[in-house]
Amino acid sequence: MSLRRINPYYRWLFPWLLDRVSKVVAPERDQLLARAQGVVLEVGAGTGTSFSCYQKQVTKLLALEPDTGVVAKARKVLRGLSTEQQDKIELLVADAMAIPLSDNSCDTVVCFLVLCSVPDPKQVLSEIGRVLKPGGSLLFFEHVLADSERVQRWQHRLNPYWHRCAGGCQLNRETAEYIQQAGFELREHERYQHRSFPVLVRQLVTGVAVKSSR
Ligand SMILES: C[S@@+](CC[C@H](N)C(=O)[O-])C[C@H]1O[C@@H](n2cnc3c(N)ncnc32)[C@H](O)[C@@H]1O
Fold this sequence. Notes:
Helix content is 38%, strand content 26%. It is α/β, with parallel strands linked by helices. It starts with a helix and ends with a strand.
């Protein structure tokens, strides 16, 4: 058993904190997830905050999450949904570094505050590209390296400590660039600062990237 699983911080407090942070961005989540359709993979689905945001055009939601403490909370959220919603949702206890789905099997992939936390975002984006159908969409909402050089310096400086206390989250990723480098076309891309977030994680990128249909 990993030490993380028996550490009380990660067992109880971290899932609770994730839940609180997730609620702050509820309007952004609703707006982005309303665009999901067909077979949807949500990477790093966390405590299941997104489950009720998906609309009728979603035929199946595969909610992938490797952390069993967090999955336990997601299961509770799932039990509180209507039978119709529950029937559409499948929890996958798995790592996005090796997604247990076949090639070209998803219409939409959702990454909501998750590419900051995976061990290697380039590997995860390569996996997302593999499981997305040609022409399929990646919907993303992520905190990234700040525009301000002063904030960047603090992000680099504090990253080793932050990383240890925040479930592997990195302050200084350049996620929009990684998405493009992975071969996606950035169809929509907004960069802005969220005033309710602490300054170190205030810079956000959100949008829609599409897997080439060629
Ligand atoms: C900041 S939380 C966001 C959770 C959720 N997306 C939300 O918006 O509430 C980051 C999530 O990424 C998950 N995560 C970390 N490493 C991962 C990996 N290798 N594969 C999939 N998910 C991962 C964490 O367990 C955590 O649930």
